[in-house]
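DATA CLASS: polypeptide
GOAL: derive structure tokens

***
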Amino acid sequence: MIHIFDVDNTIIKKTSTWYFLLEALSKGIIRLSQIRYLPLDWIKYKLGYLDVDFIEDAVKPFAGIKKKVLEQIAQDCFERRIKPNIYTDAAKLIREALNRQEKVIFATSSLRTIIEPLERFFGIEGSIASMLEFRDEITTGKILGVSFFGLKKKTQVEAWLDKNGLSPKELCFYSDSYTDFPLLEFSGLPIAVNPDRVLRKEAKKRGWKILWFRKTQG
């Protein structure tokens, strides 16, 4: 069995990108005025009305910042904000799967820079995550290619399975979001974790397993 986890609201409470933005704000790397429009996009997304990727907008304020600076922000963000907000039940599932020698990775529209400390924490590697574009070790404030959101995430997972000679029937995918319908439908074992209202309704209709995680490590 291969276990692939979405990250935001599935492994951690709330969203990794928002934690990262807060950490950058606290260090004076970006200004509040640069992200004033993001809460509205987030509300639309949670209500099921957002039909465009907003990760691209979230990374624009980081244009011109060195890669090493962003990596340090990500590590500080993990220690101060993400690690305390890891769901204990999610951590247990991941560690149990690893103890059984089963493959575990993440598949998220969040940035690889943000996710790498979480990978190191669990001792896994090779996750699927959106990538920042860098030139001469400085970010352009753009995503490299596309953000792995919705159908694009499913396409990336499908390619990863094919590359590793694995079948979708072996895939157990965990997600909280309606945007992951394509990948949930593709998976041999789809599991809704803390599902939003749209996913919760669909999961009940289809008989998908639903898990509720509440307690965090903090």
Notes: DSSP finds nine helices and eight strands in the chain.
